[in-house]
What does this fold into?
Amino acid sequence: MARYGMVIDTKLCIGCADCVVACKTENKVPEGLNRDWVVEATQGTYPNLETEFRSERCNHCSNATCVTMCPTGASHHWKGTNIVLVDPNKCTGCKACISACPYDARLIMHPEGYIDKCTFCHHRVEKGMDPACVSACPTKCMHFGLLDDPNSEVSQLLRTRKHKVLAPETGNDPNVYYLI
Amino acid sequence: MLEEILITARSNPHIDPVLEVWNWQISVYLFFGGLTAGIMFFSALMQVLNKDREAPFAANGLALLGPIVLSLGMTTLFLDLSHKLFVWRFYTTFQPTSPMSYGAWILVLFYPVSVLQILSTLRKGYPMVVSYTERVPLLPQLLNLMETYRRPIAWMALPIAVGLGVYTGILLSAFSARPFWNTGLLGPLFLVSGLSTGAALTALIARQHSERQLFTRIDIGLIVAEMLVVALMLINLSTGARPQLEAAEKLLGGSYTMVFWGAFVAVGLLIPLLLETFELRGLMRSAAVLAPVLVLAGGYALRVIAVDLGQETTWINYESEFNPQLLERLR
It folds into this structure.
């Protein structure tokens, strides 16, 4: 399985939400819905507080429970990669994938009734481009690439920087990393 | 202290602030699915054991209710689908890792076996139809044939009944993302509850006193079994990891305490257990109608609690709206 990953540097992220806007523009995300979002996490006790910004989205898990729970095969791994897509022509709108996502709300409902979500902009990845959110980031805190390739930017960052993923205890093997 | 706040609007409907993608349609379906499993199980069991004399209604009349009740449940299930035109997609594939896919195919297996079961008992269970069936060409011969194979058909129906009853629970328990559901005990719990509602419905409708008593006795056993499974589930949750503990908290002092202990445990299990015990002793005969009705209500309450509470339990929580209390906690 070719494994694509996103590496986001929380030390550089300023929470400007350009990634959110870029995604909505690129993917024509219906009004009122979002495929990515920014979380502000504050830790400590005043005056010793530490704040981190995280741009979050579908983790495109290697062990994606939304894929295993889908009764029709609509939720699937794209071309043998870890990129999780939903095929609207197979989706019945049963919402099992929404319940199956331990990260909550990685999937949104398209007004037409099928389930929609972050695609890692696979239509751009196919052409060798970065996802829209990554290319729009003004602080260049977001990186995208092949985790299998030891020379890729993402692999080098993960080798040299301290990092984490969200809730690894779910066992889903998420592929969005945060440098801390 | 750790506070995580969404600073861009996510507000995805049915997902924020808590997951609420499944509502009454799913609870009703799970309830009717369990009830249908009970109906098919007890009608087939009485047919296999040739209990026509002891349980005339269960052996010959009950099976007819199966497809009616299940169709009601499948209607609400269909109402829940948000991409309805693609419902046929369930049947162009089989997904071995998805319990919902197994369920879709069990539902398809149910109908033909149920029809055979009904045909094999129709004339005995509903003698008033005989004058009509005799007039339809070939139908009497078909009914004769089915009646000869009543027991083999019933043997086929038993595993389908158990499969249907247990799948409704496994369906939810396979969601590792929902700590309240993610226990293997949910399958047995839904199966026992489904059988119990089936026995209660039979006790409610049967005319023969001895048959009512038989199913009251069966129901007592099932209620006791259900209580044991519920106790195991509570032990399991309250000795689990953090996500399970948070789920247990909702039942033991949190927002679901009243409905769980009141509507389900007291009204749905304890009170009918007492009433049914009294009834067998010949006390409080007037409760003969009330007890099964309470069992059915309790069965529905269980499905509502499971569906609603399960969706609220999660691995990740954000404060998605401005909450002044958070400022207090920073001081």
